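Suppose you are handed only two things: the residues of a chain and a line of SMILES describing fe (ii) ion. What would the bound structure be? This form records exactly that question and the answer produced for it, so the two can be stored side by side and reused later without any lookup.

QUESTION INPUTS
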Amino acid sequence: MTDVHSHILPGIDDGSDSFETSLRMLALAEESGVHTIVATPHYDPQAGFDNHASRDLLRLRHSLTEAAQAEGLDISIRLGMEIMASDDTPELLEEGRLWTLCGTRYFLVEFLFDEEPAKCFEILSRCRKRGFRPIIAHPERYRFIRRDPQIAYEFCLRGYGLQINKGSLLGRFGEETRITAMRLVSHGLAACVASDAHGAERRTPHMGKARELLAAEFGEEYAELLLTVNPARIIAGGELAGFEPRPFI
Ligand SMILES: [Fe+2]
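ANSWER OUTPUT
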């Protein structure tokens, strides 16, 4: 499996707090069958996470990779960012000040939970015009999607990918989020499922239970599509597969 969303780099956002935690997280991911994990530190200056593309982040990834190899962990750590959408997102991407996912045209983007949908569409459309392709992090957690999941369908029609959190499917963010996540997946709107891991105790990168649930509810092939096939295509800059979005009518 490939995990396209994790806060695994130590000490730079609200994710891993130390190298030790990061190594425990990597061990959990590897144990559950993840061979590639994308570190996606928050870019969210309002929340105090002012991470830009930088040599420091590159060095941190390098150090963590070396430490993981020393521990005998067989997992590749790649780089991206989780970008809180704002008016200047398209320009920051174009200037290379924010990272896309593994240097592709796909970028991981999130919104304020109570953002206005029109604002989301406007920012994403300007990113798309510059050739960047949004992967929308945890749509099931936004209030406007819970209220009106048809908006998620509208995102899909525009070619935007939806990344569902494994914790949402497992009910870790409450019943309303779980139901919304399941509705999005059952309507064929999900491009992939990722961990959005923040630690080694809770919100971990272990994908076992999410994989079991997806296979039980939607079949092994669909679980594979969301956890392996599409995440690998995203980080290779390829086209998303198996997309048959159905509207909510
Ligand atoms: Fe995240």
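WHAT STANDS OUT: Residues 1 and 227 are 6 Å apart (CA to CA). Residues 5, 7, 82, 137, 196 surround fe (ii) ion (CB under 6 Å).
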